[in-house]
Design brief:
mainly alpha; elongated; 174 residues
Length: 174
């Protein structure tokens, strides 16, 4: 790999691979390698997206979700239907209990992926419920949790959340 880079310093794929390999041992070095790719002026859109994906993986490995989210948004700016970026943005939003954004990304995923749409009606209702919970709208929170729990393919977190909500009523919680 070093020989390829030495012979052809414009070989973006070699630098991407080098950064991915280095990530395992020295995350900061991987970040530097991937950042140098992003900053290149004569890089194609696809290679720039690959570099932002690599950078977001670096930041995710480092648990630096703010910078990872920035990189993922850079990807979406260049390719609004990038499923990998949308899935990771949704995951970060979910971890941060940012239900409004998680719902936004879930809707985008449902628009671009037919298979995603079939399986995640329950998850979508769960996100809507969690958004209402964050706004202290308990009536709509419970409504959407129950709607989520009644789907053919139930998102497991909705059942757990419904049980937590009904903890005072043992019969409903079980």
């Amino acid at each position: 790999l070093r020989e390829i880079i030495a012979k052809d310093s414009n070989n973006i794929d070699a630098y991407l691979l080098l950064g991915d390999i280095v990530r395992e041992k020295d995350i900061n070095q991987a970040i530097k390698i991937h950042q140098t790719i992003v900053l290149r002026p004569q890089i194609t859109k696809n290679k720039k997206i690959e570099a932002h994906i690599a950078l977001s993986k670096d930041f995710l490995a480092q648990n630096n979700f703010i910078r990872a989210e920035n990189e993922l948004n850079n990807i979406i700016t260049m390719d609004s239907s990038n499923k990998w970026a949308l899935l990771n943005l949704k995951e970060i939003s979910t971890k941060n209990n940012n239900w409004k954004d998680a719902l936004k990304y879930e809707k985008k995923l449902m628009n671009i992926d037919v298979n995603h749409k079939k399986n995640d009606e329950s998850m979508l209702n769960y996100y809507i419920a969690m958004d209402y919970r964050s706004k202290d709208n308990i009536k709509k929170y419970v409504y959407y949790l129950e709607k989520s729990a009644s789907c053919k393919k139930v998102y497991p977190n909705s059942l757990l959340e419904l049980a937590k909500h009904n903890i005072s009523n043992v019969d409903l919680a079980i």
